[in-house]
Amino acid sequence: MTAIGVGLIGTGYMGKCHALAWTSVKAVFGDGPAVRLAHLSEVTPELAAQRAAEFGFARSGSDWRALIADPAVEVVSITTPNQFHAEMAVAALEAGKHVWCEKPMATSLADAERMAAAARASGRVAVLGYNYIQNPMVRQIGALLAGGRIGRVNHVRVEMDEDFMADASTAFGWKSDKGSGHGALDDFGVHPVSLLHTLLGPIARVFCHQAKPYAARPLAAGGMRAVETHDIAAILFELESGASGVMALNRSAWGRKGRIALQIFGDTGSILFDQERFNELQVFVADGPNETRGFTNILAAPVHAPYDRFIPAAGHSLGFNDLKVIECHELLARIAGSEARVIDFDTGLAIERTIEAMARSSRDERWVGVSP
Amino acid sequence: MTAIGVGLIGTGYMGKCHALAWTSVKAVFGDGPAVRLAHLSEVTPELAAQRAAEFGFARSGSDWRALIADPAVEVVSITTPNQFHAEMAVAALEAGKHVWCEKPMATSLADAERMAAAARASGRVAVLGYNYIQNPMVRQIGALLAGGRIGRVNHVRVEMDEDFMADASTAFGWKSDKGSGHGALDDFGVHPVSLLHTLLGPIARVFCHQAKPYAARPLAAGGMRAVETHDIAAILFELESGASGVMALNRSAWGRKGRIALQIFGDTGSILFDQERFNELQVFVADGPNETRGFTNILAAPVHAPYDRFIPAAGHSLGFNDLKVIECHELLARIAGSEARVIDFDTGLAIERTIEAMARSSRDERWVGVSP
Amino acid sequence: MTAIGVGLIGTGYMGKCHALAWTSVKAVFGDGPAVRLAHLSEVTPELAAQRAAEFGFARSGSDWRALIADPAVEVVSITTPNQFHAEMAVAALEAGKHVWCEKPMATSLADAERMAAAARASGRVAVLGYNYIQNPMVRQIGALLAGGRIGRVNHVRVEMDEDFMADASTAFGWKSDKGSGHGALDDFGVHPVSLLHTLLGPIARVFCHQAKPYAARPLAAGGMRAVETHDIAAILFELESGASGVMALNRSAWGRKGRIALQIFGDTGSILFDQERFNELQVFVADGPNETRGFTNILAAPVHAPYDRFIPAAGHSLGFNDLKVIECHELLARIAGSEARVIDFDTGLAIERTIEAMARSSRDERWVGVSP
Amino acid sequence: MTAIGVGLIGTGYMGKCHALAWTSVKAVFGDGPAVRLAHLSEVTPELAAQRAAEFGFARSGSDWRALIADPAVEVVSITTPNQFHAEMAVAALEAGKHVWCEKPMATSLADAERMAAAARASGRVAVLGYNYIQNPMVRQIGALLAGGRIGRVNHVRVEMDEDFMADASTAFGWKSDKGSGHGALDDFGVHPVSLLHTLLGPIARVFCHQAKPYAARPLAAGGMRAVETHDIAAILFELESGASGVMALNRSAWGRKGRIALQIFGDTGSILFDQERFNELQVFVADGPNETRGFTNILAAPVHAPYDRFIPAAGHSLGFNDLKVIECHELLARIAGSEARVIDFDTGLAIERTIEAMARSSRDERWVGVSP
């Protein structure tokens, strides 16, 4: 199998995460093509060269179009700020490259639609970086659901909370500017929706309410400026399956750092999960004698594939960056034409439409259907 | 101080809980009047006599009007099924007795209004059995909020879940009949609302959605009958204070037994609480060095009054029935004319109106204000 | 059934706990004799009278011998400081009274032997106040063990930790004086040993090491005084069953409030328990598919008798004082000639001998057998 | 900075872990030399070639002496079975290579001494793979201790438990053969001792007891064979600092997967840690008002260096393999002549001597001093 050539645009939080995934994927999984780190792009040639040296890329530069044009590049990691995703992804697909683009997909529904169309037209693989769905414990939830372990799901709750906007004294920044989007709704919402999509299918209709913990924030220059985005959002919803649900998002939740808490209630049992302890999973099943029933806490172990590719011993914990390696492996499998667990651009568009329906519901104060 | 004469109507779950509270309150607290167990009423004279022997009441019978008329009775515990609350409470108040009535207050808003009016007219003490607010750890939450420990509260979430309706094979019973009320909304809703009222003040407006995990349930005689109540309810709300909130109620949540989970987010910290571990409390405060910040788990201790009246050692745990003893003590304080932490009939009516607004919102699919 | 007459000596921490148990036991359980609160004894007549009023005792005084001689008293609760247990218990038994004596049994092995002999000679019921064994969840552990749920037990660990001696600045007090005993060894040791005895049978041999976190403590008058007791003890042991074990005791463990943590390892599973969350229990059983194995957290529920006598709903939590009510009920059952779960004076003596063997081992730095 | 040439001997559990660390270290940390994967050795040339392709090594073969002799190799990762460590490490050091050898150091004290002597003679860096000490939360414990946050440490408890030997039906294997060592004592003991060494300094004396949960195990050919090693060990100890301690090890503890539980008690606070949730840490400090004291649960975050090199967001969790990357970075720092957090061969020898003292104590049933 010949090596696959990789181009990386952006080297921030997610760019580094992609670089680490590309570096490790072959060593972790053993199968698939070797990875050739071909071309890295950053805002300046100097930074690009520095990162290329750190990450081991053969070539670097500040022109992302040159990267896309580079014949040594077969797949492009796009990890730049969200507003650039559409232009880069469309260009890469049109140049015949596979694309691995970070979420959220785009900053407008129109852009997301354009990306999905480009992907369809290209015949190339176009995948979004929803790494939480790659967690072996999330896969295990999927296996439990598919196996009917808790029966038909009738209700679900999901919360996503962090505290990076919790400090009232933080100066007004771009996240409080309406140009950045709705706030928690698109910043966080896509993650729970991606999990719901993967585990329980699409959302049919939504009712959303948004809130601002702080009406205004201080300006660096003195004075205050009214906040235009909502750090808090709450959504009632119904899945196409008929199950009802509640979603709560808060990026100003003091003390929460990476909480994505799922509660799935079925006819014969329940499943609980929290991303802050993502190597664990709790399952209650209504069978056996009453006196020994309870939530069972399952620790991630080699039996939960592909945990075994990382560590042969149970209870030793995968890390957040490992999830990106799994995602990278799924992307390579899809490129090789195999079944793979990925959020492609069509599903990504469905997720964006769901968020958009939430925003519309919040504005109109009514239930809004998610158009397919 | 002369002893106070107690009448008890009903000896089921809450009736026994009242009996235990009346029996222990003087021994636990040391202060206040001695308690004279004067008169007990049950559906048959035989059952009444048996329970009177067990609980130590001097007199018994099946005529609750005789109990109310009994001059030996100064305060009446009403613990019968909800549909009898109004008639009994009004009669007792009109007879000049103090009333301690179990929640929910009544089965219609009209009844609740009648009860509140009777209480106002009587000049007697009329209190509802919202025992969760009596938990020393809930009081501690109140003290933390009052002391500004987490700043102004900007968002709150509360869940209440049990699983007594979770089994799909359970035969159709009165809780699935619309005569019993809305379902989880009034069965559970009053508890979170009472906690919010006590800790954070009244709710201003609500948006509610109700759901049925099972469309129909089996009849004992064979066949199925359509379920008329909703075992699941979810509510978006705004407090009068301006804080936004989410409430989720589920009486068919497999594995949940007595969960009432509170998450209170403030400008400078957060507070977490779960009734299933009600001797604990978690507090995050955004001060001190970042590397040692986190949620602090506080164990109930003598320093959290009136835990000290029960146990002089920390971390030894109060029980559910102890909360009723505290409530009984507050009732006696109120009767003695002191400040007391109780939900009186006026506040109880406000709680009922809040639930009613939720029901209306669910029916009309719109935000509904809670009329004061 | 005629009422049983109760005498109570002492009204401190445990005295009040006994009083509450005597007050509630009939109302909680419904069966057994009514309880007549006959006679209360305290150090002064005034305090005795005050407590008698609070607790509802008919007679009071400062002469415990008068209480024992009182024909209205059939059973005597002894809750005085430990050094008085022997004299009072022996006198009560010789007067033909049943005895309910708080642990630890006595302050010397000779006293404990005298008490056990008096109990045997009297033909009366003589029981010690080891209330932790009465917890329904501890009973559930016993049921799981008896049912072979985790196979033969091969190893056990038990820790007991509080922090009442943790503050180095606390003045030298009687607990640091060798007159009070060994320290954590007898202060705490009897509790884990009583649990082991009840659940897993007697200890065969021990190796013990004691430690002092603080060599000296401040005197109120200024200066320091060398500490003579050991706030920390650690014991390796073997049960008569052949299982090995580790016990760790620390009364200067900052942050621990009522921790008694059990870990029981068997051939086919494990059981975990912690008294700080004594309404819970964790069980791991090595069966079923590997991917869903884990520790199951069981919440106390009516199915765990006699929880149902207190609360008909699961997950609502018993309290520490409720355990004493259960113990009181077991005592009454034993008095009535029924099977009962109690630590009688013979077993209490065996527990004291085990502690004594630990002390000897610590002194001699060798394994010491527990003489039966 | 010129790249450093790496040789890897062994590609099992730890071999792959080393390979991943070498692959990622430069990309994660950005600093230090680039890494050249020069030479990989396995038991057969075929397996060596396969792994070299997967891991990206330039050269491969089955002759580890050729690897050591390879001038392209500057540092040698030794991850073979323990009995080969000594010969390989000594040879590598004598050839002037730096050595990164997996723990435990060797299978005999004589071998360990030979290795330490070779390291000293060589002037090269020789480091053992004790990766648990590299956890940012373990470093944070160290920082808290150094900063006096819990005062002088007076008592410590540490447990290490897994369940790979828990199944009684597992056939007799090499881990039950005395040729493999003592059992849990050396299999597990080195890890807690390495943590104690790093955080609290050397152990002064020990008393140890070993136990066998199963006297015999089935032979594949039928019949049973007596087990010669101890799956359980318990150790009482004193640190050179004067603190007392308890260590409990169990490799047949059903349900435990990667538990290394630390409890550190100091004069003014306590610290708790469990490797099964190694991105968390609990700290109790005895200051501030009593009503808000408790254990604070700290989530790993960028503020806990070098977590920030992996993930810029708090609460997103490092994984087990990430700890090896940190260790690799420390090794490179040491090679570059900087301060580094490593267990070198001298400290490794001290750890082995501590284990040996435990074994001797167990055999002689007496306290044994750890010779420096």
UniProtKB/TrEMBL annotation, chains A, B, C, D:
GO terms for molecular function: nucleotide binding; oxidoreductase activity. Residues 138-271 form the GFO/IDH/MocA-like oxidoreductase domain. Gene3D superfamilies: Dihydrodipicolinate Reductase, domain 2, NAD(P)-binding Rossmann-like Domain. The keyword Disulfide bond does not apply. Residues 4-129 form the Gfo/Idh/MocA-like oxidoreductase N-terminal domain. Keywords: Oxidoreductase. This is Gfo/Idh/MocA family oxidoreductase.
